[in-house]
Amino acid sequence: MDVGFSMSNSAPGEEPPFELAKKVIQKFVQRQVFAETKDELALVLFGTDSTKNSLDKDDQYQNITVHRHLMVPDFELLEEIENQIHPESQQADWLDALVVCMDLLQTETKEKKCDRLNIVLLTDLNTEANSEQLDVIIENLKKAGITLQFFLPFPVGDDEEGGGDADGRDPSQPGTGKGLSKEQKSGLDMVKHIMLSLDEEDGLGEIYSFSKAIEQLCMFKRIEKRPMAWPCQLTIGSCLPIRIVGYKAVTEEKLKKTWTTVDAQTNQKDDVKRETVYCLDDDNETEVQKDDTIQGFRYGSDIVPFSKVDQDQMKYKHDGKVLLGCTWHLKQISDEVQRHQFMGTQVIKIFSAKDDEHAGVALSALIRALDELNMVAIVRYAYDRRSNPQVGAAFPCIKQDYECLMYVQLPFMEDLRQFTFPSLANNKKFTPSDTQLSAVDSLIDSMMLVEGDDQKDMFKVHHIPNPAFQRHFQCLHHRAVSPGTPLPPMEPWLKTALERPDVISERCHVPLEEIKRKFPLTEVEKKKKLKTSAQIFGKDSEEPDAKKEKGDEEEEYSLADIAEGSVTSVRIRGQLTRRIEQLLSNKNTHYYMKSITCIQAFREQSVKLGDANLYNGYLQSLKRSIPNRGLEVFWNLLVQDAITLISKDEVEGSTVSKNEANQFLVSEEKKEEASTPQAEDTGDVDDLLDMM
Amino acid sequence: MTKWVKLHNNNSGSLSLVGDYKTTGRDSLVFLVDASKEMFIKGEDGEPSNFDMTMQVVRSVYTSKIINSHRDLVALVFYGTEQSKNPRNSFKHVYVYHDLDEPGAKRVQDVDALRGGKGAQLAAKTMGSGETSLGDALWCCANLYSDIKLRLSQKRLMIFTCRDEPHGGDSVKDRQARTKASDLKETGVTIDLMHLMKPGGFNVASFFRDIVSPPEDESELGLQLEPCVKLEDLQKRVRAKEQRKRAMARLNLCLGEGINVAVGIYATAVTARKQAPVRLYRETNEPVRSKTRTFHTQTGSLLLPSEIKKAQVYSKKQIVMEKDEVDAIKKFDDPGMFLIGFKPMEKLKRHHHIRPAVFLYPEEDEVKGSACLFSALLTKCSERNVFALCRCIARRNYPPRFVALVPQKEEVDEGKVQITPPGFNVIYLPFADDIRTLDPPQCPVASQIQVDKMKEIVSKLRFKYRSDAFENPVIQQHYRNLEALALDMMAPEDMEDLIMPKVDQIDGRLGPLVEEFKDLVYPFNYNPDSKPAAKRKTAGTGGGAEKKPKVEMPEEELRAHMQNGTLGKLTVAVLKEACKQFGVRTTGTKKQELIDALTERLGS
C-alpha cells in the first residue's frame, strides 16, 4: 500500500485515496479473518518516512517498509491497520515496492506449499517510476507465477478498451479519468503494459478502482463448503445397477460456529458448567443416577420401557448396501409431483461415478429418457445403512455443459396434514369484483421483477448473501475491534439489498393507491383479545421468540403439564405461596409465568385434597394487592389463563359458587379502576404470607 | 402460555411445530357411532359393513393420534344399543365404550376387537342393538366434556350413521336431539356427520341438517356431500376434519403503502420423527424428570441468566456479547411479509429448495377485507402464471428469508371433498450462501439408441404417484414394536415396507429389456460393484502393451457399433486406433470428439 504524501491529497468533499485504500485493505483482511482461511498475507507500505526491507542497500529501495511478514491474518493485524497506519510524507517508486514484495514472496514461501502467489498494489501512481527494469520485472513475475492486482483511485480508461462500462457510468468517482498528472499517466501506461504482458486477454480486468473494490468487499465472504462426494449405486429392478456419485447442491447453510456460554465476570467458558440431573417425581425430588435409568417410549397414554439394545435389535433395517433406491415407478412431472410437496432440506445432484464411462452412458440414457418422456423417477434413497431411508424424486436436469439427476425428498404419509380450508371462490362475500381484479392486474404489471425481451431477472435471491450472516460478522467484527461500544447499525447496502428495487417502488406507487381505494381493509378490534406474554411485553420480553423453534407441536402443553413438570415437586402449599410471592417480586414476564404455573399447581393440589379455602383465600388477597404492587400485567395473564377460584362444583367445602368463581376474573376490569385510589391500603406481601 | 412453555422445552421440534395462543389446551374428539342393526349389514360382494368400516377408521385415528398427538383426548360412544353403560348410568341405550382420555395400547386393542365378523359378534354380545335416542346420546357426550377438568382447545364430535331418520319420525325425540345438539354447539363443540351409505340414499336435509355444525365457509357445500361408500373416502373425510388446522404464525402481508393483508401460515407437511425417549427409573419404571442447571465451576453456585454471556472465538480472539445482544443481532424487523414484486413461474427454479413449503390463507378475523384482496391476488397470480416474491420474517428475532408465494387453486374430488385448498404455497428460497459450487464432472452422453431403450424401460415402470402412498417404515416399525411390547404381543405386527421397490414385479415387467440395455451400454464382464479403475477395463480387453494388435477392430464391427450408436462402449484407445485405420485426422483426444470424427467419416 502506498502511504506516501500524494495519497492524502483529495479534491474537497472527497475522501483522500489513502483512506479509501486503507478501507479496501481492512475489508479484505476482515473477510479473511472471519472466513478463517489459511491464506497468508503480508503488508508492505511504501512512501514511509523510514525504511525497513531486506533489499535496503545504498540508497536503493528507500522509504519502503515491510510492516508485516507473510502470515495468517488476525485481529492484531486489523488493529494495527486501524491504529498504526497513517499517511506519511515521503514518496517511493511503486515499481521498487513491487520488487520488494516479489522478493518477500519468494523468500518467505520457500518452505511452504502455496497454490497461488498474488501481489495487490494500492497506489495513486503519483510517483515517477523507473521503467528501466520493467521487462526484467515482468519476466520474473512470469517465472515465479506471481499474479498482480492493481487498485487505483480512479477507474482505468474504458473508452480505450471499449470494454465494461460499469465504472465510467458512475459520476461520483473521484477524478474520473480526467486531471491525471503526468506521472499518473505514464504510471498507468506502465501498469497497463505490465498487466497486458502478464495476461493478454484479461489483464486489465485485474485493475480496480478503490470505490468499486470497497463496494464488493463490504460483503463478508459467503460460506463455502467443499462439496463432498457420495458414491453409491442406483439400481433399477434387481439387476440394472448404475454407479453414481451425489453432491449436495443446495442446502440451508448454517454458521460454522455456535455461541459458547461464558461467565459474565471472567469471560471464561471453563467457569460455567451445565449439568443435567435426573430425579424422581416424589416429594423429595430424589436424585437418581443416570445409570439407574432406562429409556422408554410413550405409546399414547402408556410408557413402554424399551432399552437401547432392544430398540436396535427391533428397529427397521434396510439392506446394508449403500444404494440409492431404485427407479421403480415413474410419472408425469407436471401435475403429480408438485413443488410444494418437496420435503427435506437439500437438493442432491447425481452424476455418474468418476472414471466409469459406462456408468456415465447408462446414467445419461436414464436422464435423457426421463427428460424426453417428461417423467421423474420415484426412488428410495438411503444414505447408508445407519440412516433412515427416504422416498424422493429424481428429476432429469440437462444443462449445456453437463447433465445430472436432481434428488429431492418427498413426504411420507405421516408427514402430511390434510387441512381443508373454506373455499374462497364459492364465497360471495370474498369474491372480488371485476374492477378489483383489474386493479390487482395492474399492480402485477407494475411490479414484475423481470425486464426486457429475455425476461432478465432484476431480483435474484440466490445472489444475495444471507443477511443474517452478514450482520453477524459485522457485529462480531465491531465488537472485536472496538470492544465496549454498542453494536453498530445495519450496513446500508445490506438494507438496500433486502428492499424492493427502486424502479419497482416508483412504478407500483399508483397501482397501490388504487388497490387501497378498491379494497377496504379494516383491522378487527377484538373485544377481549387473548394476549400472550410476548404481546403484552412486546420487545422487552426476556426470551427471544426465535427460540420457540425448540417447541414441539406434538406436545400439547397445558398448565397441567407444566405442573407435572417443573413445579409440582413443591408439594406443600405453603411453600408454593412463598414461592409465588418470591417470583412475583421480580417484575418480569419470565417470573410471572412461573408464578402462574405455581398458582395453577396450587389450585390443582387444593382440588385434589378437597380443600378450597386456603387457595381461594390466597387468590382473593392476591387480587386485592394487585394495584398496589403494580402487578396488573401479571393479572392479565392470570385472567387470560382463566385461573378462577375453586367453586363448589369442584370442591364441596368451597364457599364460592361456580358463577362467583367465574365472575372473579370477569369483574376485575371494572374493579381495577375503583381499587386504584386506595394505594395506602397496603395489602402487602407479608400479610399474604402470614395468612398461610 | 403455549409460547412460553415452548421456550423452556428444549427437547426437539422445528419452527413449524409451534402452535399459537388460540390453540392452548388439548384437542378432543368424540366418536358417536350408531350401533343399530342397519350398521351391521354387510355390503354386496362381502364389502365390510358400515360398522366395520367405522371401527377401522376409529382405529386408524387412535393410532395416528398416538403417533402425532398423544395428548389429544378421544372417546368412543355407541348409541342405539340394547345395553347401557355410561357414568351414573342415567342414559338408556347409550354405551360409552371409551370415555374421553388419551388413547393408549389397550384402547387400540379394544377397538380391534370390534372389527370384522368377530367384532360384530362381540358388539352384539356386549352392547346389542336397541332403541335410539340421539338426544340422550348427545347429552351423554356433553357430560363427557364437562367431566374433563383440562382445558380443551377444540371439541369435536363425529356422528357415524347410515340412518337419516334415527327416530323413525318420532318428532318428540327429534326435537330433543335438536335441542341437545344446539346446547352442545353452544359450548363450543363442533358436530360433524359422517353419513354412510344406505339403500335409497342418505337424506341429510330431513333431520341432520339441524344437528350438525354449519361449515366454516357458511356455504351449503357440507350438506351436499355424498354418503361415504368406501373406506378410503371415509378415512379421508374423517382425517380432514380430525386434523386440527394450526397456524404457525399470523402475520401481515404488506403490499406497500400501508396495505396489510392478514394471513395465517400453516404447516401442511412436517417431517414426522420418532418420538424422543422418556427416561425411566430402573427399579420402578416410573418416569424421572431431568433438570438442567448452569453453575459456576469454582463456587458451585447456580448462575442466573444475567451472570452469563455468550462468546465466539475467531483467530484466537474471543469476542464476547451479552445474551440480549446475540438476540438483537438476529433482529432485522418485526415479523411480517413484505411484497417485493412478481415473477413468471418459470423463474422459480425447481432445485432452489431448502425447506418444506408452508401454506398461506387469509385471516379475515384479523383484518376485514383480507380474504377478498387475497382472493383477488390468488386469482390473478394463477391466471397470469406468476408468483409473488416476498421478504418474510416468520417470527420475532428471526432473520429475513425470501419466499415465493405460489398460487394454488382449490380442487375438489367427485364427492365434493376438497383435495387441495385455495391459497398460496410459500416456498423458501436459498441465499447465495446456500448454493454450493460444484464442479460437474465430464460425463459421456448416451446415444439415441441407448436412450430409446431406456425409454422403454422407463415407460414400463410408469405409475401414478400419490403423496400419501408411502408410510415411513422407520416410524411404523418403531410404533409396531412399542405396540407389541405394550400389548404383550409375541412379535410386532408385520409391516409392509412400502418404499422398498417391488423388485420381482419390476423385473417381471421389464423382462429382457434390462439385458438388452446392458448389452447396449456395458461391456462384457462389467462389474459395477468393483472399483473399475482404468486398469480393470483394459485388463478386460487385453491389457498392457501387448493389446496393441487387439485394438484393431474389423470394419464391419465398427460399422455395427456406429449404427447401434454404441461406439461409446469402446475405449478411447480402440477409437484412436480406428481413426488411424480409416485415416481420420482428429485434433481432439476426447472420446466424444473421436466418435464424432469416426461417425462422420464412416457415415459418408
UniProtKB/TrEMBL annotation, chain A:
Subcellular compartments: Nucleus
Main localisation: nucleus
Biased composition (Acidic residues): 681-692
Comp. bias (Basic and acidic residues): 539-551
UniProt region (Disordered), positions on chain: 160-185, 535-556, 658-692
Entry GO terms, CC: Ku70:Ku80 complex
UniProt cross-references to InterPro entries, sorted A to Z: DNA_bd_Ku70/Ku80 (IPR006164), Ku80 (IPR024193), Ku_C (IPR005160), Ku_C_sf (IPR036494), Ku_N (IPR005161), Ku_PK_bind (IPR014893), SPOC-like_C_dom_sf (IPR016194), vWFA_dom_sf (IPR036465)
Gene Ontology terms for molecular function: ATP binding; damaged DNA binding; DNA helicase activity; double-stranded DNA binding; hydrolase activity; telomeric DNA binding
Claim: Plastid is one of the keywords in the record: no
Enzyme class: hydrolase
Domain (Ku) ranges: 285-427
EC number assigned by the record: 3.6.4.-
GO biological process: DNA recombination; double-strand break repair via nonhomologous end joining; intrinsic apoptotic signaling pathway in response to DNA damage by p53 class mediator; negative regulation of apoptotic process; response to ionizing radiation; telomere maintenance
Pfam families: Ku, Ku_C, Ku_N, Ku_PK_bind
Keywords: ATP-binding, DNA damage, DNA recombination, DNA repair, DNA-binding, Helicase, Hydrolase, Nucleotide-binding, Nucleus
PANTHER family with a match to the protein in the record: KU AUTOANTIGEN DNA HELICASE, X-RAY REPAIR CROSS-COMPLEMENTING PROTEIN 5
Role played: Single-stranded DNA-dependent ATP-dependent helicase.
Record-stated family: Belongs to the ku80 family.
Protein name: X-ray repair cross-complementing protein 5
UniProtKB/TrEMBL annotation, chain B:
Limits of the VWFA domain: 28-238
Domain of life, source organism: Eukaryota
EC number: 3.6.4.12
DNA repair among keywords: yes
GO BP: DNA recombination; double-strand break repair via nonhomologous end joining; telomere maintenance
Family membership noted in the UniProt record: Belongs to the ku70 family.
Name this protein carries in UniProt: DNA helicase
Subcellular localization(s) per the UniProt record: Nucleus
Lineage: Eukaryota, Metazoa, Chordata, Craniata, Vertebrata
Active site: K22
GO function terms (MF aspect): ATP binding; damaged DNA binding; DNA helicase activity; double-stranded DNA binding; hydrolase activity; telomeric DNA binding
